[in-house]
Structure formats: C-alpha cells, structure tokens
Amino acid sequence: MSAPPTQDILVHTEAGVTTLTLNRVDKKNSLTRAMYAALADALEQAQADGAVRAVLLQGDVAVFSAGNDIADFLERPPTDPSAPVYRFLRTIAAFPKPLVAAVCGPAVGIGTTMLLHCDLVYAGDNAAFSLPFVNLGLCPEAASSLLVPRLLGYHRAAEALLLGEPFMAEAALEVGLVNRIVPPTECNAIAQMQARKLAAKPLASLLETKRLMKQGLVEPVLERIAEEGAIFARMLTEPAAREAFTAFMEKRKPDFSGC
Ligand code: COA
C-alpha cells in the first residue's frame, strides 16, 4: 500500500540511481511513521524498476538522522509487525540491488543500524554513530544484535550496545562500518559518484554478486529483525522507555531510579 506523500523524504531517480534524501533537518532528520513508509515504498519501487541499478541514502551535511522520532514513540509506539518501521527494516535488509549511504553528523539508533544493510558507506569526518538503545530503556533493532558483534567483535559491540556511547568516523572506518572518510561538504557527491559507477555496471552481475555475498545471511537477519521487534515493541510501552522519551521531550536527564 502506498503511503501518503511526505516532503520529509525526497526521491529522485537519475542515471540509474534512485537517491533518497532525509529532509527533516529542523528535527535532525528523526524518522516518523510517514518517513519509514515513504522509504519502504521508494525501495520497493526501486527494486521493481528495471532502469534503477543502485540506491543512495543520504542526509544533510550536518546530520544524517537522530533516529526514530521520539514524539512518535510516545504517541504511537510501533507495536505491530506491520508498522512502517518494521516494513522499512525488512525491505532494506532484503533489498537486492546495491545500496550506498552518505553519512554526515549524528547517525543515532536506526540512523546507524540501517547502515548495516547498505553495501557502501561514505562518512563525513563529522559523522558520529550511536546505538543508545539501553539508554532509552530499549533493546537493539534492525538485527544489530546479530550484525554489530559480527562486525565489531563481541567486546567492542558490547561497548557500543550496552554503554551506548557514540563512536566517530575513524572508529567506524577501522571496524569496516564505513568505506571511506570524506569532507562533509563532498560526502553526498562522492557517494553519488560511486552509486553511478555501480549503475553503469550490468544489473544481473550486481544482483547475483550481492545475492551470493549475502547468501545464508538474509534469512537469519530477517528472523532477528522479527525477534528484536517483538521485544522492542514491548519495551517501548514499559516505564524505562516512557521515562527516557518523556525526559527527552522535556529536555531533562532521565531518572531510571524507579525502573
Ligand atoms: N525525535 C524527535 N525530535 C527530535 C529527535 C528525535 N529523535 N532528535 C532531535 N529532535 C528535535 C529536538 O527535539 C529539537 O526540536 P525543537 O527545536 O522543537 O526543540 C530539534 O530536533 C533539534 O534537536 P537538538 O537536540 O536541539 O539538536 P542538537 O544538535 O543539540 O543534538 C542530537 C542533536 C541528534 C544529538 C540530539 O537531538 C539527540 O540526541 N536526539 C535524540 C536521539 C535519540 O535518542 N534518538 C532515538 C534513537 S532510538
């Protein structure tokens, strides 16, 4: 089902590349239900369109995404697997064509975990990645509980996921979460150039190569997305998360003493 159009996600297709731009900069590109639905729709269209050979996900020079919209989490927590956020995660995790990302500034929560499903990631030297799920009374999503330990090794994953402390572009490069660090003002253009290089290659070879590289991984990833999603949905409505979200909206520190 198509979502109502939102200007918060811009979709532009040119030279075989569909570019998806997070365009809610006044709210630090935090993602609403409408934005997840628009992203999932755009990915589905890009998958079906034979003229599209690669997709680029980009944000602003100063911020990639502050993660899920916290007001949405409070008002309409996504408790059902059919919620737009889970549809977006399933779509990006199983997306068969190459996905490129350009990341500058903060990439919080799903702003970082969606990158685990991209093939090439270019980061501005101002990029700051964080997985603050525990700090919000939540658990990992997007199969990050599976993919982050594989990528970072268990102990560094524990630091990222249990402490939830941000890590910068250099650390992300070191562990292989990003391909290259570039000046923020050039990041989107460099990622676009790489996406167009991919789009000039034969589609069948791109599809088969990505499929072979991901063989045996997509199913466990989709299973983990569902398993995490069920726990995440429950935790969203529990006292610790409610306190964390309310504290953010009230611009104060959370008090977890009763949680
Ligand atoms: N959901 C809803 N609104 C958000 C948001 C989010 N995740 N992140 C930022 N905003 C809003 C702020 O409420 C603020 O709105 P206002 O101008 O109406 O007061 C505006 O965006 C600017 O945010 P601000 O915090 O003032 O910007 P900053 O540059 O000082 O900090 C971040 C940027 C990303 C570090 C900070 O906004 C942040 O930590 N956001 C929350 C991240 C988070 O916990 N996400 C959930 C992950 S599951």
Q: Compute the separation of the termini in Å.
A: 39 Å
| Spans of at least 5 consecutive residues with low confidence | none
For the largest beta-sheet, the strand count, sense and barrel status come to: 6 strands, mixed
Number of contiguous helices: 11
**Could you say which overall geometry the principal axes of the C-alpha atoms support?**
globular
Helicity, in percent? 40-55%
Q: Mind telling me the C-alpha Rg?
A: 17 Å
Corresponding CATH architecture: Alpha-Beta Complex
Task: Give the strand line-up of the largest sheet.
Answer: 1-2-3-4-6-9
Following the backbone from N to C, one meets helices and strands in this order, namely EEHEHHEEHEEHHEHEHHHH
CATH structural class: Alpha Beta
What do the pLDDT scores average to? 96
Overall tally of structural domains: 1
